[in-house]
Amino acid sequence: LAYEYVLLFSMKTALICIKANAQSCGECIQVSEICGWCTDETFLSEGESKSARCDDVSYLKKKNCNNIENPRGRTDVIQNKSVTIRNKDGNIKLKPEEITQIQPQKLKVTLRSGEPQTLDLKFKRAEDYPIDLYYLMDLSFSMKDDLENVKNLGTHLMREMREITSDFRIGFGSFVEKTVMPYISTTPARLINPCSNNENCTSPFSYKNVLKLTSNGEKFNDLVSKQQISGNLDSPEGGFDAIMQVAVCEEQIGWRNVTRLLVFSTDAGFHFAGDGKLGGIVLPNDGKCHLENDVYSMSHYYDYPSIAHLVQKLSDHNIQTIFAVTEEFQPVYQELKNLIPKSAVGTLSSNSSNVIKLIIDAYNSLSSEVILENSKLPEGVSISYKAFCKNGVQGTEDNGRKCTNISIGDEVSFKISIESQKCPSGGKPEVITVKPLGFNEEVSIELNFICDCECAKKGEPNSPKCHGGNGIFECGACKCNEGRIGRECECSKDEVRSDDLDANCRKPNSTDICSNNGECLCGTCECKKRENPAEVYSGKYCECDNFNCDRSGNLLCGGHGRCECRKCICDANYTGNACECSLDESTCLAKNGQLCNGRGKCECGICKCEDPKFQGPTCEVCPTCPGVCTEHKDCVQCRAFGDGEKKEMCQKECSYFNLIKVKERKDLPQPTDQSFPLTHCKEKDANDCWFYYTYAITKNSTKEVFVVEKLDCPSGPDIIPIVAGVVAGIVLIGLALLLIWKLLMIIHDRREFAKFEKEKMNAKWDTGENPIYKSAVTTVVNPKYEGK
């Protein structure tokens, strides 16, 4: 069943090549990776179309094609710098650009349609990797108490982060809201001080870059301590405007190509794309930097960015976001985290006192996960990932892009498969990148596409082989110019059908065009294609095929020949209409080396027995014949012992074999000692004596009988032991019977005595007085006695 399934699958895949009807080598190799193009000029037989050159490579080889164009894709590594092994306690301090965490860095992949190319990627977290952290804080009035705790954040956070990396920088920015109604009050007094209750607040602003990234924690504390709270009218804040500017203004913020962390601290929700319409702002956010004197100057001009726009910019600039929000807004930012890769959410206490612990925990969570992403793929190209993570964990499909629980120094690998389904328009090389989210490193992959065959480069334009220059002769066939068709471009599309041309496609004395097995194109028969690619029509009029020959054993040409134009061409040593007759006589040889045991003839490798009473593969079986031993018993008996039924005619009837006597039975020939059949016999004579012999026919047809010279006669019985045994047996039987009788009598007596004892115990005796009995005692009563 498995073999039939594989065969069926193979036929179906091969059919893809044929059905494509490819007219050139370039078209053929775009159909499937299994398709090849035969470039032999004489490959096509009469009646076969040009597209028959395109077929499964294995079938082309079976058709004796010597030159097959079958280009294959490949992967070449251009840059393969090993991942960095670095220790923060070491003496050598590397620059960020000198640290490598992903390998290889550059590859060149050549793709053929339908053939995936696989490449291996390795990622290792480097120890003491530099970190840039930008703290973006909501300075609306509700964050007043939080600002007090953040004023000393710089030195404290710097001290904690030194445990993770020796190269740490920190920056600070703040945001409130767009400076238009209805987000803030635009009255002159409120523009100066938006707070009430005589609070001293700064003017409202959208986003302000207070401190670009620096390694000076004291400077951070100094500048942040000078910041003042501002105010706005609505609850959601304009944080998305600030995040966009922090992401795209790399120079102003001071981002390096290292780990980039953005801490977004707020106690409110956020505005997003479309909300700007409330203030009359309809232009979509352009995703560009608009900082003037470290202040966002276009908040009144561009709408808030969308979430998707933010995701794109954060990813492009390798920024990992930590949302430090109060418990009230946890659900909102958890949903936002699910939309932004490589982001985390931490619960901020009401006064931001836990912000350092929150940042450390969020960083550890983000850095322990690596997620691969790729740039936009060219049309028709697909990519798949398989991850090999710690502890033997593997991931496929969506989980194939990421590994979790990665510690510093851990190494994980990915297997990436890239496949092209078609050759893109133009066929020019394309470059894609694969990178781990949140990291500045990436793998550059140049994609090259195999859109044509190598042999096409050697094509001969306007070749005389293509009907006077009507095509390019390339890869063993004509590639016709526009408007021309036919194997040799001999026909114009305008002349495809005409009665004169059809006449060339009919056999003499026939009305069928191409024998009803093809189509007449340009006066030439182009034969039909069968579903089974191994079955083909051929011939000038498609009158021949290779599948309608005689069969034997349900096999075409008995499996011992090939079918050509509906006639079997038999292999050597086979003959017959269906090659069913073998000329090999080895199957007719009997064990004695004779053909059919000398009882028949060998025809087509099978014995035909001449005597009807014999049968079997070599005429060795005779169901109605007596056994070999019985058949020769009398002759052996008369010649060896001068006895038996043929004693009188022994010399006349029993001289057809050679008699050889041996002393003992063990001296008889054994089957393993002979190269011809040997029969062991054991027969009994009239005196009940056994004699043993063997009968054999040697390779030179000589009959041989080996016989044991002494008869094996049974000895007479010994009378005395028999009589003594009988007498002893009778005596013993008598004694046994007496013992049994005595035992039965004892049992009976004991039962009777027990019965007597039982009746004695149960007997009742009469207790009445004797009538003649008189007591010896006389009682006299004193009449005067009154009992006193």
From TrEMBL:
Residues 24-453 form the Integrin beta subunit VWA domain. It holds the Pfam family EGF_integrin. SMART domains: INB, Integrin_b_cyt, Integrin_B_tail. One of its GO terms (biological process) is cell migration. InterPro entries: EGF_extracell, EGF_integrin_1, EGF_integrin_2, Integrin_beta_N, Integrin_bsu, Integrin_bsu_cyt_dom, Integrin_bsu_tail, Integrin_bsu_tail_dom_sf. It is a single-pass type I membrane protein. Its main location: membrane. The chain crosses the membrane at residues 719-741. Residues 742-788 form the Integrin beta subunit cytoplasmic domain. One of its GO terms (cellular component) is ruffle membrane. One of its GO terms (molecular function) is laminin binding. Gene3D superfamilies: 4.10.1240.30, Cytochrome c1, transmembrane anchor, C-terminal (1.20.5.100), Laminin (2.10.25.10), ligand-binding face of the semaphorins, domain 2 (3.30.1680.10), ntegrin, alpha v. Chain A, domain 3 (2.60.40.1510), von Willebrand factor, type A domain (3.40.50.410). The keyword Thylakoid does not apply. Disulfide bonds join 17-453, 25-35, 28-65, 38-54, 195-201, 249-289, 423-681, 451-455, 466-478, 475-514, 480-489, 491-505, 520-525, 522-557, 527-542, 544-549, 563-568, 565-596, 570-579, 581-588, 602-607, 604-650, 609-619, 622-625, 629-638, 635-713, 654-689. The keyword Repeat applies. Keywords: Calcium, Cell adhesion, Cell junction, Cell membrane, Cell projection, Disulfide bond, EGF-like domain, Glycoprotein, Integrin, Magnesium, Membrane, Metal-binding, Myogenesis, Phosphoprotein, Receptor, Repeat, Signal, Transmembrane, Transmembrane helix. Belongs to the integrin beta chain family. This is Integrin beta. The gene is ITGB1.
